[in-house]
Structure formats: structure tokens, C-alpha cells
Amino acid sequence: MATTTFEPRIVAFFCNWCTYTASDLAGTSRLAYEPNAPVVRVMCSGRVDPQFVLKAFEQGADGVLVGGCHPGDCHYQEGNYKALRRFRLLKRVLTQFGVDDERVRLEWISASEGDRVQHVVNEMTNQLRRLGPWQQARS
Amino acid sequence: MADKPKVAFYWCASCGGCEEAVVDLNETILTVVGAVDIVLWPVAMDFKKHDIEAMPDQSIAVAFINGAVRMSEQEEWVHLLRRKAQMVVAFGSCAHLGGIPGLANLNTGAEVFDTCYRDVQSVENTAGTRPQLKFVIDDHTLALPEFFDSVKSLDQVIDVDYYLPGCAPPADLIWGAIQAILAGALPPKGAVLSPNKAACDVCPRKDSKPDKIEISEIKRVATHIADPETCFLAQGFVCMGPATRSGCGSRCVEGNMPCRGCFGPMDEVYDQGAKFLSAFASVLAPKDEAGIERLLDQIPDPAGTFYRFSLPTSLLHRRKSGVPV
């Protein structure tokens, strides 16, 4: 009997101005990377409501990746700082819920860093392959 | 007398505060008693389970059920009441959202037992005795209800028609709901019977809120005395007002206590804790990782604080089983 290998499903929220553009660059540069992280484009990493992250897990995601502009580079001045504070606080809450550290990740990736998108998605996918699926409690 | 609508009150995992809230109707309760026929109210009247079982299905007009569902006995009772009642109202935070008992979802049932029957300093239990589902002594079999791993809100167990929020629901909301039921003037099924506006919107301290809040130090009621006039968030206290439904009459704020979120979220929000977390993190002052971490260290139990009343109905429902605390 053939064994099915686990393929993690990662939801990637990328900001329009930096990380989404970087993933576009990775594509036009023909950089191959794991197909496990379909991208949801948001206007700013500050738009990523912590509810989106939890909803992703509730709907069957194994990990969530948020990508935004480097500090000081936010198109809206402050959005990525808000994202960082929310992310740090959410991480603490998720630890209390028993969500493994590797499952939620925030990365600053500028528009010119297509190779960074390739590296981060590959790395996270491999980490989650080893970690296994997220088991969502049912009510 | 037979024409009066039959009403049942029942309690599950709760503290008794919701029963107190009914009594807080004061003289109005005489009007309620005059208008309805109470067929079950364990805290105040002597009716047994078999009395309810003997009633025809759908013969109770309304069942008000408070408390979370924590044990198999409560699960049996709420299924029974659902069968006998035409309408079920989840009464109070625990039935509505899981409430304070729902915080136990950060632990397993076994861990709760370990604490209660082994680790608490006042417990002397060298034999390691634990509650058993069945116990035989002198040919008699004693049985206890099962203690579940997870606490559930009422609507995670049975179909619920309406929600009366609050820990406990205030008298004016209860009376308003009873009047609406008697008059048949209820909103669509599934509604929370309280205004769909944030508590901040009607807060008596609303005018003291600055245009931009920036928190550099997080204060706790245990260690700081709050100014009695100023917006709690502006002072650096964790106040759940931005992510909490109004209708409570700002009772806590009037008592110089920040909002703790017992009314649950507005209709558009599907995870109260995450929504508050989002609002709160956005008004913190630091922009660098070290500064953020230093500030966040001042919140010792973020999940327990932001999900104080709503953990079982959060998107993740509970701590993942098998992960050590």
C-alpha cells in the first residue's frame, strides 16, 4: 500500500507593496519553490486581523505566514509596526492554546527580495512537514 | 391557570449569579410569576427530572438555561429541556459563550482533577482518590456524571433560539426579554438580546478618550488604582470595551473596574479575544521587538484575559490536547 506523505497547507498573507511584489518577482525570476503556501494579497500587513490567522487554522490550515515591509518602509507609515505588535501578542496567546511556534510566522520581505520568498516558503513548508498537521479541536 | 405559558429555569456549570439576577427583578418578579407558570427552577422550587420527563414534548413555552455544559448530567438535562421547550434562551455568559468555567479549556479534564484532588495545598489525599463514574459498595452501585475534557457553550450542545448575555444579565435586559417573549415581539432566531454596539460607544467615560491612545505601561487593577473619570485604555488598563457588546449599563466602569468582556462580541465579530487583541496591540506604543516584548511581559495571562468569558466559543475552542501546559 502506498503511503501518502503529509503536505502542509500554509495560508500566506502578503502585503501588496512589498512581500506580494517580492513573490511576483520570484515568479518572473523563475525561482521554483514549494507550492504549499497560496497567497492572499492584503493591502498591508497591518490589515491582517488576528481573527484571520485563527480562522485559517479553524478551516484546516497547518500554518500561517504573514509577510510585510521592513520596519520604516511601510507604505502606510505604521501598518507593519501594528502587525508586529499584534503578531507578538498573538504568539503568546497561541502558545497558551498549544499552537506550535513554527506554525505562525511573520517575515519582512521587500519588493526586491524574491529569493527571500523562495527561502522562507521552502523553510516553513519543510518545518511543517516534519511537525505534521494541526489538529483543530471541534466544538 | 392552565392557559399561562409554562417557563423553566435551569442551571448547568454556573455560579448561581444568574439565579440571583432573576431574583434581582425585585417586585417585577411578581408580575412575571403572575403571567407565567414556572414548571422548573431548581434553585427555588422543588421539581424533579421525572416531572419534566412526564410533560408532553414542546409543552414548555420557554426554557431559560444558564451555565456552561461541563458534565454528562448537564448534557442530558439540556437535551431534555430542548425536547420539552418550544424556545430555549441561553441565559448569561456561561451558556452564551462558555464563561468563566470555559477557562478550564486551557487544561484537560485530567489536569483539572490533578489540581483539585492532588495539588491544591489544602488537599490531603494520600490514597490518590479520584471521582469514579461507578463505585460499588455493599452491593450498591453509586454513579457520578462524566466530567468532560472540554467545557461547552449551550449552543455547542443543543439548538439555541436566543441569547441573553452578561455575567449576570442585568434586570432590565431580562425583563425586556420576558416582555418581548410574552408579546411575541422577538427579533429573528439566533439574536443576542442586547444592542449590537460596542461598550465603548455608550461608556460614561467616552469623552475622556483621547484621539490617539498610546500605552507605554500596562496597569492592572491588582497593583494600580484607576482614575475614576478617565478612559481605562488611555490609563493603560486592559479594558475589553472595544470588543464587547453593550447593554450592561456600564456597571463595571461605574464601579471603577475596566470592562472584562462578559457580554461577548458584536454580531460581526467571530472571535472576541482575537478582536480585542488586535485593537489592544494597535494602541501599544513601542515599535521595536525588545520594547514590545517588555510591555507584553506585563500581561501575565493574555489568553485568560482576552478570552475570560469566551474561550469555548473562540475559533480554536481549547488548548490542543496532549500539549503540556
Key terms:
heterodimer, A: 139 residues, alpha/beta, Rossmann fold, four-stranded parallel beta sheet, B: 325 residues, five-stranded parallel beta sheet, two-stranded antiparallel sheet, 29% helix
Architecture overview:
The complex is a heterodimer of chains A (139) and B (325). Chain A has helices spanning 19-28, 50-58, 79-96, 114-131, and strands spanning 10-15, 39-42, 63-68, 104-108. With 139 residues, chain A is an alpha/beta fold. Chain A has a single domain, classed as 3-Layer(aba) Sandwich (Rossmann fold). Chain A has a 4-stranded parallel β-sheet, with helices on both faces. In chain B, 29% of the residues lie in helices and 14% in strands. Chain B contains 12 helices and 9 strands. A 5-stranded parallel β-sheet of chain B has the order 2-1-3-5-9, with helices on both faces.
Order of helices and strands of chain B: EHHEHEEHEHHEEEEHHHHHH
Number of helices of chain B: 12
Instruction: Kindly state the percentage of residues in helix of chain A.
Output: 25-40%
CATH superfamily of the largest domain in chain B: NADH:ubiquinone oxidoreductase-like, 20kDa subunit
Q: Mind telling me the CATH superfamily name of chain A?
A: Lumazine/riboflavin synthase
Biggest sheet descriptor of chain B: 5 strands, parallel
| CATH architecture classification of the largest domain in chain B | 3-Layer(aba) Sandwich
Q: Per the principal axes of the C-alpha atoms, what is the gross shape of chain A?
A: globular
What percentage of amino acids of chain B are in beta strands? 5-15%
CATH class of the largest domain in chain B: Alpha Beta
How many separate domains make up the residues of chain A? 1
The radius of gyration over CA of chain B amounts to 22 Å
State the name of the first-level CATH class of chain A.
Answer: Alpha Beta
Alpha-beta content class of chain A? alpha/beta
**Which class do the helix and strand fractions of chain B yield?**
alpha/beta
Major sheet: arrangement of strands of chain B: 2-1-3-5-9
Please tell me what the overall shape of chain B is: globular
Overall mean pLDDT score of chain A?
Answer: 95
Low-confidence stretches of chain B: none
- Rg of chain A (C-alpha, Å): 15 Å
Beta fraction of the residues of chain A? 15-25%
